[in-house]
Write a structure and sequence with these properties.
Structural class: alpha/beta
Strand order of the largest sheet: 7-6-15-16-17-14-18-21
Strand content: 25-35%
Shape: globular
Mean pLDDT: 94
Number of helices: 12
Number of strands: 21
Largest sheet: 8 strands, mixed
Radius of gyration: 22 Å
Length: 406
């Protein structure tokens, strides 16, 4: 919902061509692209700088996304520090099955924790490119999105005053629970999918137990290992949706990980202190369109893809590249072609990634649902990956994000 400011305390509105709501990867990337083009913008964020720079989230970045960051001068630290994954490993039927996607495609994944990327982007946007940003703002509101004079207002955390910012466009990059997504409630078509499962997301103070991503497809539920650094490892365990993390003490977690990731010839898991435990209910949504008047949504504000295929961060950055470029073109040359096609072009990739996530979910979880038919078809899919070069190549392209050109 948008509204007209009522008796704002701000004596005179500030003005920026673009207001970006949200200082996550998408919002900061949009801001960096605009500043590189010489366009002024303001980024508004409800969290503190320390909070957004320290929030652990995704870590797998596709090579096309890294190249997009590199072309925009945003990948310096990533290229120096990120780990490069060239293979993953499936464990099922008590056996290990290495999947060398680099050997099939010449491409690889980059592993760079999201908080490192956000830290890089904040520094580049605010400290290097001189972008305006307000951290810790409260009660953000959107106004006049359907007209030619939109604005955004917020309560300043220091003065307690409501400030009004006039703009030409608003970039909604504030996530699934943000104000920009709420602003289009009732106007957008929202497609949802619930997988009916949960994942217990864990961070362990322990080195990875293998030098690659592990996917354990077990009758008792999926388990995964995602290396993050030499000292910290991300693990996942399939669990009931809505489960309480307190139901998973240290001993139970490691016993289940050992069992579900166990395979002939596998090294024992390296245990460590669990520094994060939270339950993620696996679900997706897609908001159509992604444009409403002068508001353009990006990242989780527009779509959520469950972490099953590690696509969420990558989709957010693809959106940000497209939106930043289109806004700069419109504001600098008057050409609105990119903005007019923004929603449609992004949604094609979104649906492609959603379909792959759904397919991969059945591969991971089909054997654990108690349905012998699903278990049989999931096992057939797994076996086909290691017996059919065509199936292996198709999987590798989708897994690496190189299958489709948009």
């Amino acid at each position: 919902m948008t509204e007209t400011p009522s008796s704002p305390n701000s004596p005179s509105p500030q003005r920026f061509p673009v207001v970006v709501v949200g200082a996550g990867p998408a919002g900061l990337t949009v801001g960096c692209v605009l500043r590189a083009a010489g366009v002024d913008c303001l980024v508004l964020e409800t969290g503190t700088r320390e909070f957004v720079e320290g929030r652990p989230r995704a870590g797998v970045i596709e090579e096309p996304v890294v190249r997009g960051l590199e072309r925009r001068g945003l990948a310096g630290n990533l290229l120096e520090r990120a780990r490069r994954d060239t293979a993953c490993e499936f464990r099922f039927d008590g056996e290990r099955h290495r999947f060398g996607f680099h050997e099939l495609t010449g491409r690889h994944h980059w592993v760079y924790p999201q908080q490192f990327l956000v830290t890089d982007l904040v520094r580049e946007y605010a400290d290097v490119r001189g972008g305006a940003v307000r951290f810790g703002v409260r009660d953000v509101r959107l106004h006049g999105l359907d007209g030619d004079r939109p604005s955004v207002s917020y309560v300043c955390p220091d003065s307690g005053r409501r400030e009004v910012v006039a703009c030409d466009f608003v970039a909604g990059c504030d996530g699934a629970r943000g104000v920009t997504r709420a602003a289009v409630a009732g106007r957008a078509r929202v497609a949802r999918h619930d997988y009916g499962i949960g994942w217990l997301a864990l961070l362990a103070e322990a080195p990875p137990s293998a030098d690659r991503v592990l996917f354990g497809c077990h009758p008792d539920g999926f388990a995964g290992q995602m290396p993050r650094s030499a000292e910290v490892t991300r693990y996942y365990l399939q669990c009931p949706p809505g489960d309480d993390p307190e139901n998973w003490p240290h001993e139970r977690v490691w016993a289940e990980l050992r069992r579900r990731l166990g395979a002939a010839g596998a090294e024992p898991l390296t245990e460590g202190r669990l520094i994060e435990k939270r339950v993620l209910d696996m679900h997706d949504y897609v908001t159509e369109p992604m444009t409403f008047g002068r508001l353009h949504l990006a990242g989780d504000a527009a779509h959520l893809v469950a972490p099953i295929a590690a696509k969420g961060l990558n989709l957010a950055l693809h959106d940000a590249f497209a939106l930043g470029d289109a806004l700069a073109e419109r504001l600098l040359t008057g050409d609105g072609t990119g903005l007019a096609g923004y929603s449609e072009s992004c949604l094609r990739r979104v649906w492609d990634y959603q379909e792959f996530s759904q397919w991969l979910s059945e591969l991971f979880h089909g054997g654990a649902g108690g349905d012998p038919f699903r278990a049989g078809t999931a096992l057939a899919r797994l076996r086909r990956l290691f017996s059919s070069p065509a199936a292996a190549a198709a999987f590798a392209e989708q897994y690496l994000g190189t299958a489709a050109r948009f």
